[in-house]
Design goal:
Length: about 130
């Protein structure tokens, strides 16, 4: 199998994934997955598509992550891995990943701050007189 790449985004985080056949090693920006994401829940989020398709020990994954916070990066990585698995074998994996909602891009972004106000939606206190 040749190297397959995919892209995942969430908020302002961008994950580029390169998938090869291997033993299940996941490298994020040159570090092991558990070292890059110290929280166990984030590691669980990243591994969800691999566990759903029972391919945890079949592929080696290299990841370039930029932008955002660690939660957004983990969710961007989940989307990228799901898209890469679809490129590997769409017939076998696509229905499972789609049913679990891993192929849907979460389009919510931070709303911009408006001029003359303290935040995006917050307003200064109104005074009638």
């Amino acid at each position: 199998m040749e190297k397959i790449n995919a892209l995942g985004r969430r908020k302002s985080a961008i994950a580029r994934v390169f998938v090869n056949t291997g033993k299940g090693n996941i490298t994020v920006n040159g570090k092991e997955l558990e070292k890059y994401f110290p929280d166990e829940s984030l590691v669980y989020i990243v591994r969800q598509p691999l566990e759903a398709t029972n391919t945890l020990a079949n592929f080696d994954i290299q990841v370039n992550l930029v932008g955002g916070g660690i939660k957004g990066q983990a969710e961007a990585l989940r989307l990228a891995i799901s898209r890469a698995l679809c490129k590997v074998d769409a017939e076998a994996y696509r229905s499972i990943l789609k049913k679990n909602g891993f192929l849907t891009r979460d389009q919510r972004e931070v709303e911009r701050k408006k001029p003359g106000q303290p935040g995006a939606r917050k307003r200064f206190q109104f005074s009638k007189r």
